[in-house]
Specification:
Mean pLDDT: 92
CATH superfamily: Mog1/PsbP, alpha/beta/alpha sandwich
Order of helices and strands: EEEHEEHEEEEHE
Radius of gyration: 15 Å
CATH class: Alpha Beta
Oligomer: single chain
Strand content: over 45%
Number of helices: 3
Helix content: 10-25%
Strand order of the largest sheet: 3-4-5-9-8-7-6
Structural class: alpha+beta
Largest sheet: 7 strands, antiparallel
Distance between the termini: 22 Å
Number of strands: 10
Low-confidence stretches: none
CATH topology: Protein Transport Mog1p, Chain A
CATH architecture: 3-Layer(aba) Sandwich
Length: 155
């Protein structure tokens, strides 16, 4: 399946995913404004793309600060949150800063893992969130990698 997000980012995803409505996004993210997401119920994986509105402040920051700020807000609601790795990755020929992490959900005794990466596109930032049950991460990671490889950014 294909999606065009914010009239700028195009990506493809497996048919096992369904697009998330706003109420579904709120289960996973505190801020759902300027956010699109997909969920694979069988594999217990969520992938979302969010973006900032164009603005002067975007010129004063970088992708690393976007990721660190988002994780700082997120981890206050999570148990045993820990960063696993930090690296730069390629997303549609853009240099994206990425941090991988693990945590326990507040409402269940399930260990989750995920990644948050961000990159600049013109005068805004895009952030990609990946969340998976840890025991299913190996297979889910392949699905996520395929989505990342499929991303195209319209000029």
């Amino acid at each position: 399946m294909n999606a065009k997000i914010n009239n700028e980012v195009e990506l493809s995803f497996d048919s096992g995913f369904t697009e998330m409505a706003t109420d579904e996004l709120k289960k996973y993210f505190t801020n759902v404004k300027n956010r699109w997401g997909i969920f694979n119920k069988d594999n217990h994986v969520v992938i979302s793309l969010s973006w900032t509105n164009p603005g002067f402040v975007n010129y004063l920051t970088d992708a690393k600060a976007i990721v660190k700020g988002a994780l700082r807000c997120s981890k206050s609601n999570l148990i045993d949150f820990k960063i696993i790795s930090k690296q730069y990755v390629d997303v549609a020929s853009k240099k994206a800063y990425c941090e991988a992490f693990e945590y326990k959900a507040n409402d269940a005794d399930i260990v989750m893992c995920g990644e948050l990466m961000a990159f600049r596109q013109k005068n805004k930032f895009y952030a990609i969130h990946y969340l998976s049950r840890k025991e299913l991460n190996e297979g889910n990671r392949k699905l996520f990698d395929n989505i990342i490889k499929s991303i195209k950014i319209n000029p």
